[in-house]
Amino acid sequence: xxxxxxxxxxxxxxxxxxxxxxxxxxxxxxxxxxxxxxxxxxxxxxxxxxxxxxxxxxxxxxxxxxxxxxxxxxxxxxxxxxxxxxxxxxxxxxxxxxxxxxxxxxxxxxxxxxxxxxx
Length: 119
Hints:
Layout: E1 2-7, E2 10-13, E3 18-26, E4 32-39, E5 46-52, E6 57-59, E7 67-72, E8 75-80, E9 89-97, E10 107-109, E11 113-118
Parallel strand pairs: 2-11
Antiparallel strand pairs: 1-3, 3-8, 4-5, 4-9, 5-6, 7-8, 9-10, 9-11
């Protein structure tokens, strides 16, 4: 089992910044991918960004440029700048074996951390 502990969410004003972090512990894998997803009411969970243990980075959409994902060993960070009210969501940490998600591979989710951007 892999445990994921998230931190860094909260309330911020429009234009502000936040950094989320997620630390993986337990039976972690040498080759793995860690990332951040978010969910807003009425929408499906969407990829914000991911980074694998080899350093490969992927962003899900238009947040690239405002958001930066990075990692140090088994901790992943999401630096969010120029935050807008539409960035308000529950942000979830994700961890899976390898570099390509497979239905046969172990995958884990954090409990989620709320980010609220006030206008």
